[in-house]
Amino acid sequence: MRAIRIRKGPNSKTLVACILTKSNYPLKVVQKYDNWIQIADHENTLGWVHKSFVTSNGKRYGVTTSACLLTQKDSNRILAEVPSGFIVTLLHKIDKNWFVLIKDPTDNKKMTGLIPCAAVWGE
Question: Going by C-beta distance under 8 Å and a sequence separation of 6 or more, which residues neighbour residue 123?
């Protein structure tokens, strides 16, 4: 992924507020202006990006707001520890408390399990 400049205003001449370097990072659309979209992240940091940088591939992503455990669906077996700030793929909600998700740890081994909804921003 190439770095995306998040700007303080809706044009390419305004100051850069931050630079986004992670792909599939979940962002909330706050408003649109011309060819620009104001976005917010899980910490409610606001910024503007050109609409060409905002895409959806049909998958839902979240970011963990606190460290939590990925557990097996039919038992309490712990599959992995998920650190705060980790991007996860959200598959579906089991009930109001649990998501089924895919976690991609640093060893690139994909794991499917449950994670608490309260630990995820971006649903």
Answer: 60, 62, 90, 93, 99, 117
pLDDT category at 107 given cuts 50, 70, 90 is low
Determine the Cα–Cα distance for residues 7 and 77; give it in Å rounded to an integer: 43
Whether domain 4-55 has CATH 1.20.120.530: the reply is: no
Enter the pTM of the model.
0.75
CATH class of 61-121: mainly beta
| SS percent in the chain: helix, strand, coil, step 5 | 5, 50, 45
* Strand duo 98-103 + 87-93: pairing: antiparallel
CA atoms of 41 and 37, how far apart (whole Å)? 13
